[in-house]
Amino acid sequence: QVQLVESGGGLVQAGGSLRLSCAHSGYAFSINFMGWYRQVPGKQRDLVASITLGGRTNYADSVQGRFTISRDNAKNTVYLQMNSLKPEDTAVYYCRLNGGMDRRNYWGQGTQVTVSS
């Protein structure tokens, strides 16, 4: 059974930093990419950042230069370092794993990030 477990969310003041972690287990095939997404109530889930098998990264314009996605393959973990946080970064952050020839998706349960002004 594939599991993705996010951690590291919380409450932080504007200008502060948080680091999210996503530890995955139970996946036996090649990972195409992993990503972080966020969602606020009543809106769609949007891409924040992603990283491919080859290490290529992609960021939403709104977080470019403030957030950094990275991974530790030995620990099966993907990180999202979030600096200079703004109130508009407040959301539930989800981790996504896309893998295999059929490009199947798996999601974590989400972690709340709240940025106070």
- The proportion of residues forming helix, as a percent range, comes to under 10%
Tell me the strand percentage band.
Answer: over 45%
Order of helices and strands: EEEEEEEEEEE
N-to-C span: 40 Å
Whole-number mean pLDDT? 95
Uncertain stretches = none
From the alpha-carbon coordinates, what is the Rg to the nearest angstrom? 14 Å
Number of strands: 11
Could you characterize what this model shows?
It is globular, with a radius of gyration of 14 Å. It contains no helices and 11 strands. The strands form 2 sheets. Strands 2, 4, 5, 6, 9, 10 and 11 form a 7-stranded mixed β-sheet that branches. A 4-stranded antiparallel β-sheet has the order 1-3-8-7, with no helix packed on it. The chain is mainly beta and 117 residues long. The model has no long low-confidence stretch (mean pLDDT 95).
Draw up the topology in text:
Elements: E1 3-7, E2 10-13, E3 18-25, E4 31-39, E5 46-52, E6 57-59, E7 67-72, E8 77-82, E9 91-99, E10 104-107, E11 111-116
Parallel strand pairs: 2-11
Antiparallel strand pairs: 1-3, 3-8, 4-5, 4-9, 5-6, 7-8, 9-10, 9-11
Q: What labels would you give this structure?
A:
11 strands, mainly beta, 117 residues, 7-stranded mixed beta sheet, 4-stranded antiparallel beta sheet
Short synopsis of the structure:
With 117 residues, the chain is mainly beta.
